[in-house]
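User: What would this chain look like folded?
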Amino acid sequence: VRSAIAMLMDTSGSMVDILPHMDRGVIDFSKTIRFPDEYFVITFGTNVKMVHRSPDTQAHLEQVLKGLKPFGTSVLFDAMLYGMDKVNASGNERKALIVFTDGNDNGSTIEFGQVAEEAQLSGVLCYFVAIGSPVLVDRHTVESMAGNSGGRVSYVPKVEAVVPYLEKIRSEMARQYYAGYYATRVKGYHKIRVEAPGRKDLKIRTKSGYLVN
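Assistant: Here's the prediction, encoded as structure tokens.
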């Protein structure tokens, strides 16, 4: 099954010590992505910008990342909505955002609830990679968004390589499948729980519920 992945890089002022680690992780991870999988690299600070996409060359990506400078505010929610639009436009079945951020948003035109609702409706998995001290991370934002979408949060110490954490995400996506059921259509948010009786060795990761408009 083919994947479409948007990698979102927080380039706001709070990322000054983190940007080199992000750069290395994105470069190394991009080398593992092969056609027909698609990927997009999107930066967000004061503005959201698409800086690279497959099948652009690896040299292009490295050149773009060399020019990035941490500055300004963070429009995390605007960037996530933009990234969802890009992966949803792809014909590939598996869709995900991998967001390098501390979870702080101080400049978006939309609110947390709007981007959370879009994630619910679109079915895009949201993975967050928080590099550095967990104390500086807005855990509520990243953990609730990841949990609601079926993704997760990786807390990466600056002394460790980022790629192994990204490979875990790729591994999870490769094991992704869809389960459906019929239910009476009732507007609002509905919690779901998936169990595998008798399989204590099996860890299931799924979205916490779904939204009906």
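The chain is about 30% helix and 20% strand. If you want, I can go into more detail on any region.
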